[in-house]
Amino acid sequence: MTSGKLKAGSIFPAIALPTLTGTDVILGVPQQGTDWQMVVIYRGRHCPLCTRYLNELETLREQFGALGIDIVVASADSEEQLRTHMDNLSVSFPIGYGLNIEQMQQLGLYISHPRSAQETDHPFAEPGLFVINENNEIQIIDISNAPFARPDLKTLLAGLAFIRNPENNYPIRGTYL
User: Fold this and answer.
1) HSE-up (13 A, CA, CB side) for residue 170
2) Domains of the chain
3) Which of 33, 125, 136, 163 is most buried when burial is the number of CB atoms within 10 A of its CB?
4) So what's the pLDDT on residue 1?
5) What sections of the sequence does the record tag as coiled-coil (predicted)?
6) Cα(128)–Cα(110) distance, rounded to whole angstroms?
7) pTM recorded for the entire structure
8) How far is the C-alpha of 64 from the C-alpha of 66, rounded, in Å?
9) Is the pLDDT at 2 greater than 80, yes or no?
10) In this structure, are strands 69-74 and 95-96 parallel, antiparallel, or unpaired?
């Protein structure tokens, strides 16, 4: 089985997902007056590491916003699973739900089957993080096949501050073919 991975510098696919507010969020389209967006894909309600990661991300949300970077997160969870998960989340960024297998594949994510019915009731995406610039190009890609390997958010924030500083003229990395 092959899986196409997105390439650094390529155009990020616009994917619309529903949110609990009743409106759709479009992955890859910055909101809130920002010109960049960070898209975080998490495994779902069943993953305590994801819950901790998203709550930590919220503590840095304003700092990302000060850099002009909007945050949106998404998973394959159902609406009901997300509603239940919200009891353990203290976040203000939009959360899309219902990411389907075709969309996961479009993003080049690793996909897992649940270990048991107690874990969840559907295939789910393993963690992914994408930073999309003002040209809708993928500036940063980080995908993992397990919840234990994710970017440290404070290190990522510092790196993005460096990248966004026009004096540094920092290009998109990893584009050698």
Assistant:
1) 14
2) 15-163 (3.40.30.10)
3) 125
4) 43
5) none
6) 9
7) 0.94
8) 5
9) no
10) parallel
